[in-house]
Amino acid sequence: MSTGPGFLTTAAMINGSEWSPACLPCSADEGRTCSKAPEVASVRVQLEMQSLWRQFDQLGTEMIVTKAGRRMFPTFQVLISGMDPAAEYVLLLDFIPVDDKRYRYAFHSSSWMVAGRGDIAAPGRVHFHPDSPARGAQWVKQTVSFDRLKLTNNLLDDNGHMILNSMHRYQPRLHVILVDRSRDSQRYAHRNFCTFIFPETRFIAVTAYQNHRITQLKIACNPFAKGFRAADSENRHSAQCQTESAGLSLPWSVFEGSSPREDQRLHHQPQPQRRSNAHDPALQTAMTEAALSYGAGTDRRDGGSQDHFYSAPVLLTVPCQWDGPSRADRSLIG
């Protein structure tokens, strides 16, 4: 990406700068005479899904970090205006600690509390929007989404993910950088970028959600969590798992002490026709015999008039409603 000699200087200034409410300040030696380049001074940025971000912020937003990297939800998305249509811009996103504290969640009060001094800051990184660089006309025509960004707590990450410390609070920052291809662009690097911060996007990095209301809100609002919403609704109307053994009518009473004749009579009852060859009568007979074989022991103390079957442990594959997402699916929740 050829962006001119001053671009690296600009990126270095961004990476080492402190949190500021708007555009980052110019160097101290230039004082009040410093001003941003007109191509960036007129840029305006609006946060998308602002009301949703505020809902999370009121509860204390949590973002999952994993070794492999986890996407953010809500996704950081913005609408940009005021760019020079012919000028080229680069968009960057980074995360800075809000403070030097480490936090813990107090379940008795449902709130976050300071747990001590923060850990050593993770290596500073910036995330380039994949469309960078692009002309202003392209940036302003549609929503700009950082949906490919992932958060990790792996200090040795080599995938370019944003490295954060768990149980620390962070603030995302958006940087708009003007691509200046002039020879003396290094002299004006401080004028060629502007930073935008939205306080409602701050969050605490966690390896597992602490506040159950955050979990519920993410499942309710994340479009990729539709399956989890359906499962949660079904679980509220079901007190136990549905024991559908793939249409196979095993004689469950055999484990409760019934006689072989009763089991045989149950087995020979008419069965509905199955589409799958895996549930044909021969297979049902084999499965029934396998179940009966666990009750081979008899007790003849009553004169042999009745067989008492031992309740040996049997492992059966029974589909069951589970109210938690798999490891693969959890990546879709955010």
UniProtKB/TrEMBL annotation:
PROSITE patterns: TBOX_1 (PS01283), TBOX_3 (PS50252). One of its GO terms (cellular component) is nucleus. One of its GO terms (molecular function) is DNA-binding transcription factor activity, RNA polymerase II-specific. Residues 258-280 are annotated as: Disordered. GO terms for biological process: anatomical structure morphogenesis; cell fate specification; positive regulation of DNA-templated transcription. It is found in: Nucleus. CDD domains: T-box_TBX1_10-like. Signal peptide: none annotated. The keyword DNA-binding applies. It comes from the Eukaryota. Residues 47-230 form the T-box domain. Keywords: DNA-binding, Nucleus, Transcription, Transcription regulation. This is T-box transcription factor TBX1. It comes from Cyprinus carpio. The gene is LOC109109906.
